[in-house]
Design goal:
By secondary structure, this protein is mainly α. Helices cover 58% and strands 2% of the residues. It has 2 domains: 2-154, no CATH class; 199-289, no CATH class. Strands 1-2 form a two-stranded antiparallel sheet. The longest helix is centred in the first third of the chain and has 27 residues, at 83-109. 30% of the residues are buried.
Length: 290
């Protein structure tokens, strides 16, 4: 399952880049700024010997690192920099970031669907600037030949995810599932909170807490259904202000906020959600008609 999820993440990365790299303006703008990018990295260009090293450099510059199903970081031996290169590296990185930023701005102005707020697009544009690109390839093949970070990333401590704007629900759900497994790998299973007297949790209290949270969800998402809440429970996207961007994600956020220390918040069964919604709407109807 985990290997399939990583494979799906790679496919999502390719599909994301393919949506914009085929725009006719991309080649023209990239070619115009190639010499500036080459000038920026000139002090360390002896290390940029192949596509793998170029991708590694771009990911580093824009804050990404790759992992695989074995949870090992995908990195090779560090570059052996000379004293001159050590001193020049910060300036090379700063100038390269500036060139990429300017290029991204021109691409967006030309109608290319890049997202200036997503560092993954900056890394992908950086690779295009430094590599000899075969522009005759179809967009999907060109994207597959690159090493784009994709539409989402997991924080180093597995505490959360961040996504490119307008990322689809399928991509978000897949990365959220990988994040939970990465968190388990790093920190072990979440500890359940002990209950007074060593007894079991009061089922009525759990139901009341869940329905209280669902009532708040319905205030923000009045058309939410049990199916929609169930399928978006693992959605970690956020709106301005920090509120979850989906009814399921908002329910999870509320339940996590109300959870006892060490308590694990799990997704409710769809039928349970359906019964909860029926009960809440039945309670609300008499008040509205009285």
């Amino acid at each position: 399952m985990l290997t399939r999820q990583f494979k799906a993440a790679e496919q999502h990365a390719t599909a994301t880049m393919a949506r914009w790299v085929g725009n006719a303006a991309v080649r023209r703008i990239i070619e115009r700024h190639k010499s500036e990018a080459d000038t920026a990295v000139f002090p360390i260009d002896r290390h940029l010997t192949c596509q793998k090293e170029v991708a590694r450099f771009c990911w580093y510059v824009f804050g990404f690192a790759g992992i695989g199903p074995d949870w090992e970081l995908r990195r090779d031996a560090s570059w052996m920099l000379s004293p001159v290169e050590v001193r020049a590296m910060p300036f090379a990185i700063a100038l390269f970031r500036h060139v990429v930023k300017v290029t991204i701005g021109e691409l967006e102005s030309a109608g290319v669907a890049v997202k200036p707020t997503w560092s993954g697009d900056h890394a992908a544009v950086g690779e295009l600037l430094l590599l000899a690109v075969d522009w005759e390839l179809p967009a999907a093949d060109l994207a597959a030949a690159m090493n784009s970070p994709g539409p989402g990333a997991i924080t180093a401590d597995a505490s959360g995810t961040i996504f490119r704007r307008e990322t689809g629900e399928r991509e978000e759900t897949n990365l959220a599932a990988i994040r939970r497994k990465f968190e388990h790998h790093l920190h072990g299973p979440r500890q359940r909170a002990p209950y007074a007297g060593g007894g079991k949790r009061d089922g009525r209290s759990t139901t009341a807490k869940r329905r209280k949270a669902l009532a708040e969800v319905l205030e923000k998402f009045p058309d939410a259904t049990a199916s929609k809440i169930f399928t978006t429970f693992g959605n970690y996207s956020r709106l301005a202000g920090g509120q979850a961007g989906s009814p399921g994600g908002y329910l999870r956020q509320l339940l996590e906020a109300a959870a006892e220390p060490g308590e694990t918040v799990s997704r409710p069964v769809k039928e349970t959600l359906r019964q909860d919604l029926l009960a809440l709407r039945a309670e609300k109807s008499p008040k509205e008609t009285s």
